[in-house]
Amino acid sequence: MNSFVFSMVVVFLVFFLLSSQVSADLISDTCKKTPSYNLCVSTLRADPQSSKADVQGLALIAVKKLVVEGTKTEKEIKQLIKKTKYKPLLDALKLCADKYNIIVHYDFPVAVEAITKGDPKFAEGATVDAARSSDKCASGITSTPNLASSNKLVHDLDDIVLYIVRLLL
Fold it and tell me: Signal peptide span per the entry (predicted)?
């Protein structure tokens, strides 16, 4: 009886270790297909659900992080608008606010829903649109390094989501 229990424990441990290794390999393999490997790996591994996720699950984890960062950036833009007096920068910030309103309240929800429902083509369209919008924002905010950095993070996360979604096509 003791040898049977021991054997079952060993089998369970081997299975657990192999499944963890497979998940880790899936994250690494998936992230190798994105333009920002290190950001992709750190983003996905930060979520405990990633160890059990398939590629669709990894896309959902990445897009949820994208939503968080996009929402933070939108708030940052709104705060800067209230403080800014310099007209060229104010105009650039207002353009960014318009773009982030679309990104956060339209593109990201479409991407989340499309990934959830297994429709990667719609998710791809939404992430491409969000990337274009963040690019348009980037040109006018170089004088605000924190916002420029936040916008770049959103753009890089968006690229990661886009590349993962394309694996689902």
Answer: 1-24
